[in-house]
Amino acid sequence: MSRSRTERLVNLVICLLSTRRFLTAAQIAAIVPGYEHDARDQRDHEAFQRKFERDKAELRDLGVPLETGTTSVFDSEPGYRIARGDYALPEVRLEPDEAAVVGLAARLWQHAGLAAAASSGLAKLRAAGIDVDQHTSLGIEPVVTVDATFEPVTGAVRDRQAISFAYRVPEDDQSTVRRLQPWGVVSYRGRWYVVGHDLDRGAPRCFRLSRMVGAVRRLGRPGAYAPPEVDLIEYVAGFSGPVERSGRAIVLVRQGRAAGVRRWAEEIAPGAAGDRVVLSYADPHWFASWLVGFGADVVVLDPPEVRQAVIERLRAIAAALPGGVATLEEVAR
Amino acid sequence: MTASIDRLGRLLNLVPYLLSRPGIAVADAAGDLGVTERQLREDLQLLWLCGLPGYGPGDLIDMALDGDRVTITYDAGIDRPLRLRPDEALALVVALRLLGETPGMAQREAIDRALAKLERAAGADAGAPVTVGQRGDNDRLEDLRRAVEGRRALRIVYYTASRDATAERVVDPMRVLVVGGRAYLEAWCRQAGAVRLFRVDRVDGCVETGQPSAVPPEAHPVDVRDGVFRSTTDQPLVTLRLARGARWITEYYPCETVTEGPGEHWTVTLRAADLAWATRLVLGIGPDATVLGPPKLATMIADRTRAALASYGVDR
Asked: CATH assignment of B3-74, given 3.40.50, 1.10.10, 3.30.750, 3.40.30?
């Protein structure tokens, strides 16, 4: 923006803040430097109108609450003003420890898309007289990244407007278009989700933001629904939450091997053939596939369902090997 | 947000900023506001031309610029900053929630108070539609944080997944990081003679040594902007063919390339810390993953599978 344009916009803000009456475009043009034009010359007048429209849009983008209205019933043309109460940040006082955590919070996005918004927000707090020490540390530094769809999705939640998006999980060959009334965005275990009412399934659903493909589109009108009062975390955790490890297995672990298994041991009893290790597990098949990763260093003794699951998995891997299955004799060699 | 709007926003903010800090040094203000001193002086020059209609000496913004120090003497009515935009309110409020939910975090009470005040100041826009839930071993994290703050060396028992081995080592803590919801201790490892990131959920034991930490001056914090996992070209490049049931690994392991097809199969390449780690990974995935390279890995997988079957007394 040219210097004169910035100057004109600052003057426009000051002018509209100082007036109680709504000022029409023509009145503004007569007051604020930079809008001088010949209203009788159509081309000149249209150029002014375009300039003024651009300036209004710029102010609104910046968050300046531009009010439109008429001062009296006799006014034929609407005018503009800025209500001081809507413009100004309300009084906010932060104790030094509060200001320090706000400064730290603003740094959280340092590596992500919201960094600019956080630092301009912080600049406003500073302008409100708050001193923020940017160099404090709480000993723990969270580094937060967000998915590209974070901003459009949170915007839609704020406006209570339905969205549609292409969604793809790795198991699918194609993405499918989903339509959702989003209730809220959730950060859970470092991943971002949106929970809402799925318009096609007619039921609540949860989507991972990282699995959305392409742009998020808005559907229908804003304010079209009211999100229910539900605990969204519970909702997301329900899909990936902790499960009870009620199964108990005994495995034989070769001496000095498979530290990754040993560290989950509930008991370890040394033996000549290896250490007998007691482990608990939730899902026998998931547990079996984890154990298979350790190869011959770990042999399941009990229960039979896990032992069998391991053997079957090993057989399936062997069958898929190039060159097929070796015989025991080959292994022994 | 364009650069032009940025400047307008900066100017509208500058007046109340200076107003609340009479006599502030221009250099300090520039540092605080994240602009160069030269830029700030240009902004001040421009503000001098702005003011109330009439635009006479008593209408324009006025300030006393005394060498290096500046005092606003007339603000022309922009004495308060603009209220927070929805995106600014969201960025600050959600960041505070993320901080507050980070396990082991100190100052939780200050975070809650700051959050309440900001939510009030942001008004209607504070209803940031974002909920935060973290996880983690609070006690362990708190121990590590205290060691960082107290500058105390630690003896940790650490499981190294790439080597499938647990070992004790003495470390000098530098900071605790939470990246992607996972906590790490960044420390100078005396055994390795280098800065290491230790995953907190793999710290199986931790005691203070009684010595102060001694982080050498050459220890630099790790740049985690693009994630914690740093692949290097000297690590073996593993190529896998994945059937549908194994495609999920592309969401959990940083893959260098992912090629879809033919059919349901995807071909992915990823850097492995070493081939023994890759063997455990591929065997753990099961028959839905086939090794395309390097050949040595394929041989290791085949050998380990046969050996494992043999240990169950099964040959096919």
From this structure: 1.10.10
